């Protein structure tokens, strides 16, 4: 059997798997989380089309789930690799779900009756979930997971489950197994969001109404914790003014992050557009930026169109520290960059909500996986490095091991999909060559 392993089931890994299946390749799709879809599933809309993110990802997730040629391994991590190009063996460790996936029908009765509430990681900590849960309504696979760390052992979920799918701790346990005969491996482990606490001047988690862009995305999402309404965390009220701060954790040599995160300018203007569409002039919107980088197809046109359509103040400036101010406001002193003069160089803003456009970082565990796979990582940033960036941007220095998506560098959804397709085709050609088929 021709077989390729794809590590990471976000938009990149899912696209790579679907492309390989179309060429008759069996794919083992490995995801460490209980559900697939990655960050794209968390978004409300995507730029520059303003399409619903679920319209983009949902059909792909279900196609993966339905395909007989995809072996989906959720809650699973790669712990080792042996062998040679064309015949790799992966060692995997599967964490217990404490639910029988074959029996669970996703009815949600267990979730409704569970008395425990903890922060929901899918909602970036803004919403809550139960100790037995699905991250969101359309999650794939449609099977709950029991969080044994927070479960209090009340037994209500066992009693209410109509299919007896909920398992006792003793019935489900950590499993280690191997997948043999892997022709190629595609690493598509995605990214994590930069933590603004690394820069104390932003006062993230110190002032409650300073939030990250991902938290703001979950607010704006119709299925989010606030039902699509923008709310201040301090008092639950709709803010009258919002400041969007760009380049948080990006293009800053002082903190060792010299690189541009690529997507921040565009998702900031997207969020500004969504604010204005929903609230109009009831919310004043100000964007603080050093400059705009809108490099993708249709990005600059999207940027100009939104700024022309809505009253949005854009300041090219260096923002100072965020401080608490009178009433329900904050205070930011900004110094406008020289080319904007002769306007007054110092501006004082008093917003009611501040959104930090956090940059992208490598996903947790990416460096350990790269070392295991023989993939180089960039010295300062930690992203995966191609073996030959010019001739083979999806290849690594290890034959048969390919890399794709935001694991390689910050990328938007379109670029992730394109690189997934490139990596899938490279992996497909490996299987053709190994099998000795004509037409390679």
Number of helices: 9
Mean of residue pLDDT values: 93
- The rounded distance between the terminal residues' Cα atoms is 18 Å
- The number of domains is 3
For the record, the CATH architecture of the largest domain stands as 3-Layer(bba) Sandwich
Spans of at least 5 consecutive residues with low confidence: none
| Proportion in β-strands | 25-35%
Strand order within the widest sheet? Answer: 15-21-16-17-18-19-20
Q: Which class do the helix and strand fractions yield?
A: alpha/beta
Largest sheet: 7 strands, mixed
CATH superfamily of the largest domain: FAD/NAD(P)-binding domain
CATH class of the largest domain: Alpha Beta
**Radius of gyration of CA atoms, rounded to a whole number:** 23 Å
- Range of helix content: 10-25%
The total beta strand count reads: 23
Shape: globular
- The name of the CATH topology of the largest domain is FAD/NAD(P)-binding domain
Question: Helix and strand layout, with pairings?
Answer:
Elements: E1 3-7, H1 11-22, E2 26-30, E3 45-46, E4 51-52, H2 53-66, E5 70-73, E6 76-84, E7 87-94, H3 109-113, E8 117-119, E9 128-130, E10 132-133, E11 145-146, H4 156-160, E12 175-182, E13 184-187, E14 191-193, E15 210-212, H5 213-220, E16 241-248, H6 264-279, E17 284-289, H7 299-309, E18 312-324, E19 330-336, E20 346-349, E21 353-358, E22 360-362, H8 366-373, E23 401-403, H9 413-435
Parallel strand pairs: 1-2, 1-13, 2-5, 13-23, 15-21, 16-17, 16-21, 17-18
Antiparallel strand pairs: 3-4, 6-7, 7-12, 8-9, 10-11, 14-22, 18-19, 19-20
